[in-house]
């Protein structure tokens, strides 16, 4: 069994190290005891892509509720008091100095060699969270035509609600957790329905600066209870600016049967696959979920970034934790205590020591993230598993290789999608 | 957003109040297809559309004034290009991209989209953005090669600083790439030249007749990002979309003056923007304002804390209203307090909106402003990168 020692991030005020069973209820928690007799705010989203979206969800509800919880003092620190900067350089990594995120000194042992582990009700999970940490339920409101919000609504007794809760150790303003079907106590594993819910939330925010992310066990998830994270940062992530190269599939126009386009990241320290388009959000969720399930079943830890209002999904298989457990990571990197989860991989790096923050450079950030990435060979292997599992077939470019020999101006016409990046921030999004 | 506004005065004013009374006539003389938008108005709407644009798009003036230009996008519009445009607005830069726009009748067409901010040369603040659309003419090509989607890489800094020779060459090659059908699907030399000519014409038109006011505008920002006027211009852009009544005051300046006031605040209180900027918000107080409440507010500011209370305030016309007031420190990316936000809610106008209580709406405003101010320093133009196309 491979383990590493880490100081876990406390995401809920109820997640005390070494706590015993909850002291009986009347605590207004999220367990079966309390939830079904409580009233929580309810946001009903519309899954119809044509229904009008505005900033109501994001700024008037999510941020409003978040600010109100700040007033109530529910967060461990004021994240807006954390210095943040964009590191100079073409990638534009974002570094934050956050000394408060890991105040707990005592590290815990985390098992990092199994991506799928059964749910353990004795360990901390989200049913133990107090209701004041919940911002609202997030349900499909298709019965009513457009999205709606109710400040107090009874929890539907026939099914487990999806809840959005605060992360008491936020990485940015508005950092929340999306917990699908909280009462059903799913372990941390992706399935199509929960991924689709996350996409709906990204779409509902209708703001490309509001992203959702997922960390599998072994890729720095600390709680084995299904959850996504989300927050709002008003600047592009470096990974969103990175070039991509389309992987031509055997299908019309090189995309999958249900219209999903698959690309891979180029010129970015972490190797990853990008899924976009698709005939519907459901189709995109299906392909990505199948890819994740394949990784889960092959015990490959991974992170997922949901970007561009749910239209663009990045999948990063990673191996940092395993390297750490095997003692293959340099002490210099270990000393920074950075846990490269989805936000770090996307280019938003939280640093705990002032020296690391002051000296942060594009080169040091790149070095750190490069450790997280699978090697080229391993990545190609994993990519092959994924394609196999999702029924995608890649077309190898024999035709293109012939043309490469001919003289072309700049020689770039034949590799149609890979072109030099001109300057800072010059996007080449496929 | 209103669908049709027969009264176009706020949009005329957006231009005539900044430039000259004859600016509209000068703009109408131009034969290019372009739009002008005002980022200081909530929703960043169109305030001017050239005749040529209207004929090309099939819309009438009243159908598009006041609306955001995203209405011309549609299913085939490349999200990457839209993303570039959005980033350019946010960072106040010029951008040139290939874009698929849709006419009123729903037909898509390709344009070279060239957008520039209009900077006041003296202080670097942004007054407007203009967006030129040059229709792309399909020409039979001579080169073979695969190009499955017509995508043009936008070159913001190229356009802003003048193209570096190498980058220009690469840009040319990208532009001249041909589609599978053997026709050019991208903007070529001709379109780009037309865009630059149009850009110069628009700036000339905006500067004409300004001898009286001495205002000079251009597409280049001359002022550094550290000067206060440029900062407040950034603020205008990020905060323009928040349509609640609030002000931002700067505690580092003597007298803690207001440096930003939302449109909603101005309509609620009856003051104009220039009557309010630079003054401390105590002008809202009057004979009936409880001094204890004022002390409470001062205590909170000294303690760097937020507070909510109810006090009697006065409009410009002397009428009073009960203000459900919330004040909170707002930090920027350095983590230090940059401003205090004061959210003003007229108790009499209380009512729910979208199922959200007024108190929650206030918190929402604070949240949105905190996010905007925190990311402000990300958007001020950083050091200009030297061409690193390799």
From TrEMBL, chain A:
EC id: 2.7.7.78
Residues covered by the GDPGP1-like C-terminal domain: 238-390
Listed GO MF terms: GDP-D-glucose phosphorylase activity; guanyl-nucleotide exchange factor activity; hydrolase activity; nucleotide binding
Compartments where found: Cytoplasm
EC class of the enzyme, as a word: transferase
Catalytic activity annotation: GDP-alpha-D-glucose + phosphate = alpha-D-glucose 1-phosphate + GDP + H(+)
Pfam families: GDPGP1_C (PF26216), GDPGP1_N (PF26217)
Domain of life (superkingdom): Eukaryota
Gene Ontology CC terms, in alphabetical order: cytoplasm
InterPro entries referenced in this protein's UniProt entry, alphabetically: GDPGP, GDPGP1_C, GDPGP1_N
Keywords noted in UniProt: Cytoplasm, Guanine-nucleotide releasing factor, Hydrolase, Nucleotide-binding, Nucleotidyltransferase, Transferase
Record-level GO BP terms: glucose metabolic process
Domain GDPGP1-like N-terminal stretches: 58-231
The family this protein is said to belong to: Belongs to the GDPGP1 family.
Annotated function: Specific and highly efficient GDP-D-glucose phosphorylase regulating the levels of GDP-D-glucose in cells.
This protein's name: GDP-D-glucose phosphorylase 1
Automatic annotation (TrEMBL), chain B:
GO terms, molecular function: photoreceptor activity
Top-level taxon in the UniProt lineage: Eukaryota
Family annotation (Gene3D superfamilies): PAS domain (3.30.450.20)
Example GO BP: response to blue light
Protein name per Swiss-Prot or TrEMBL: LOV domain-containing protein
Ranges where the PAS domain occurs: 19-92, 258-280
Keywords, alphabetical: Chromophore, Flavoprotein, FMN, Photoreceptor protein, Receptor, Sensory transduction
Domain PAC per the UniProt entry, residue ranges: 305-359
Cellular component terms per the entry's GO annotation: nucleus
Matching CDD domains: PAS (cd00130)
Natural source organism: Rhynchospora breviuscula
Entry keyword annotation includes Magnesium: no
InterPro entries: PAC, PAS, PAS-assoc_C, PAS-like_dom_sf
UniProt xrefs under Pfam families: PAS_9
SUPFAM superfamilies the record matches: PYP-like sensor domain (PAS domain)
């Amino acid at each position: 069994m491979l383990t590493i020692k880490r100081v876990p991030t406390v995401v809920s005020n109820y997640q005390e190290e070494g706590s015993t069973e909850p002291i009986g209820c009347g605590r207004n928690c999220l367990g079966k005891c309390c939830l079904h007799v409580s009233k929580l705010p309810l946001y009903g989203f519309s899954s119809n892509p044509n229904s009008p979206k505005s900033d109501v969800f994001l700024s008037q509800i999510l941020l409003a509720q978040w600010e109100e919880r700040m007033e109530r003092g529910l967060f461990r620190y004021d994240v807006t008091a954390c210095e943040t900067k964009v590191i100079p350089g073409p990638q534009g990594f974002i570094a934050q100095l956050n000394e408060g995120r890991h105040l707990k000194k005592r590290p815990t042992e985390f098992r990092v060699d199994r991506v799928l582990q059964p749910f353990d009700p004795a360990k901390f999970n989200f049913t133990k969270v107090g209701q004041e940490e919940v911002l609202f339920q997030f349900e499909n409101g298709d019965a009513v035509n457009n999205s709606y919000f109710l400040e107090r609504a009874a929890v539907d007794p026939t099914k487990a609600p999806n809840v959005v809760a605060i992360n008491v150790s936020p990485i940015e303003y508005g950092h929340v957790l999306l917990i699908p079907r909280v009462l059903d106590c799913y372990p941390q594993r992706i399935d199509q329905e929960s991924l689709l819910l996350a996409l709906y939330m990204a779409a509902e925010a209708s703001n490309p600066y509001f992203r959702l992310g997922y960390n599998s066990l072994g890729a720095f998830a600390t709680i084995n209870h299904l959850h996504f994270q989300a927050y709002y940062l008003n600047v592009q992530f470096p990974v969103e600016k990175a070039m991509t190269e389309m992987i031509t599939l055997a299908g019309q126009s090189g995309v999958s049967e249900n219209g999903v386009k698959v690309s891979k990241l180029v010129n970015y320290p972490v190797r990853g696959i990008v899924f976009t388009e698709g005939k519907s959000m459901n189709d995109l969720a299906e392909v990505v979920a199948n890819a994740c399930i394949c990784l889960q079943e092959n015990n490959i830890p991974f992170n997922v970034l949901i970007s561009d209002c749910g239209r663009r999904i990045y999948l990063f298989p990673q191996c940092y934790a395993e390297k750490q457990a095997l003692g293959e990571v340099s002490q210099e990197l270990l000393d920074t205590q950075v846990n490269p989860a989805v936000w770090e991989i996307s280019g938003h790096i939280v640093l705990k020591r002032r020296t690391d923050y002051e000296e942060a450079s594009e080169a040091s950030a790149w070095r750190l993230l490069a450790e997280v990435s699978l090697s080229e060979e391993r990545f190609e292997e994993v990519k092959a598993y994924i394609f196999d599992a999702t029924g995608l077939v890649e077309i190898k470019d024999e035709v293109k290789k012939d043309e490469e020999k001919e003289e072309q101006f700049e020689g770039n016409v034949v590799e149609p999608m890979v072109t030099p990046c001109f300057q800072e921030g010059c996007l080449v999004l496929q | 957003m209103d669908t049709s506004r027969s009264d176009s005065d706020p949009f005329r004013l957006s231009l005539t109040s900044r430039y000259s009374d004859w600016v509209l006539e000068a703009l109408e003389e131009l034969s290019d297809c372009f739009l002008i938008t005002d980022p200081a108005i909530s929703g960043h709407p169109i305030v001017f559309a050239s005749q040529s644009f209207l004929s090309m798009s099939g819309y009438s003036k009243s159908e598009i004034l006041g609306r955001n230009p995203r209405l011309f996008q549609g299913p085939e519009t490349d999200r990457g290009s839209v993303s570039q445009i959005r980033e350019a607005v946010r960072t106040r830069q010029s951008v040139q991209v290939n874009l698929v726009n849709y006419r009123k009748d729903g037909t898509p067409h390709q344009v070279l989209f060239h957008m520039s901010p209009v900077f006041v040369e003296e202080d670097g603040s942004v007054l407007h953005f203009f967006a030129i659309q040059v229709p792309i003419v399909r020409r039979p090509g001579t080169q073979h090669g695969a190009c499955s989607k017509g995508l043009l890489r936008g070159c913001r800094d190229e356009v802003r600083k003048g193209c570096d020779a190498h980058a220009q060459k690469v840009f040319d090659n990208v532009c001249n790439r041909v589609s599978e059908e053997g026709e050019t699907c991208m903007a070529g030399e001709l379109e780009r030249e037309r865009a630059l000519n149009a850009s110069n014409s628009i700036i000339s038109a905006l500067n004409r007749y300004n001898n009286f006011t001495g205002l000079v505008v251009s597409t280049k920002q001359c002022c550094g990002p550290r000067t206060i006027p440029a900062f407040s211009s950034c603020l205008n852009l990020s905060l323009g979309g928040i349509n609640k009544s609030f002000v931002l005051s700067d505690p580092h300046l003597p007298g803690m003056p207001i440096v930003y006031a939302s449109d909603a605040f101005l309509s609620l209180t009856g003051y104009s923007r220039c009557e309010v900027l630079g003054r401390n918000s105590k002008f809202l107080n009057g004979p009936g304002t409880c001094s204890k409440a004022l002390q409470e507010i001062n205590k909170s500011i000294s303690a760097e804390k937020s507070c909510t209370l109810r006090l009697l305030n006065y409009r410009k016309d002397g009428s009073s209203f009960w203000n459900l007031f919330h004040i909170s420190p707002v930090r920027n990316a350095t983590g230090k307090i940059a401003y205090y936000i004061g959210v003003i809610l007229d108790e009499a106008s209380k009512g729910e909106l979208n199922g959200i209580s007024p108190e929650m709406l206030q918190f929402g405003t604070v949240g949105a402003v905190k996010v905007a101010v925190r990311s402000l320093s990300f958007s001020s133009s950083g050091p200009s990168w030297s061409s690193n196309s390799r």
